Amino acid sequence: MSRASLQADLANAQAHNSRLAARIQQLEKRLSQALGVHAWQASGHGAPTDIDELQRKITRLEQQNVELISALEEARSDLDAARSANRDLTRALNQRG
Fold it and tell me: How much of the chain exceeds pLDDT 70, in percent?
């Protein structure tokens, strides 16, 4: 394995770790909200319908945001890996000549 290959693998692993951490944080928040809603409803008070709909919309938008951030991080990781490989190839070509 070349140094560039290892660096690209490391960059990809770090980006993947960041995506997983963001996903875990989002899931923890959703779980906390769901438990809060359950406790609220169990108390007999319940939330008005319009608040419930807004909460569902917020959840959908947060999920979409996490997915977009994940896609952006993955694209950046791929770009960084491609740039690294390109530098190595250019360096190798220049050393031959």
Answer: 95
pTM above 0.70, yes or no: no
Q: Which two tokens stand for residue 8?
A: 């690209």
Buried b / exposed e along 44-56 (16+ C-beta atoms within 10 A) = eeeeeeeeeeeee
| Residue type present at position 18 | S
Q: What is the 3-state secondary structure (H, E, C) of the chain?
A: CCHHHHHHHHHHHHHHHHHHHHHHHHHHHHHHHHHHHHHHHHCCCCCCHHHHHHHHHHHHHHHHHHHHHHHHHHHHHHHHHHHHHHHHHHHHHHHHC
Distance separating alpha carbons of residues 45 and 82, to the nearest angstrom:
56
Does position 49 have pLDDT exceeding 70, yes or no? no
- Residue 91 predicted with pLDDT over 80: yes
Answer for the pair 65, 19: CB distance below 8 angstroms, yes or no: no
pLDDT value, residue 42: 80
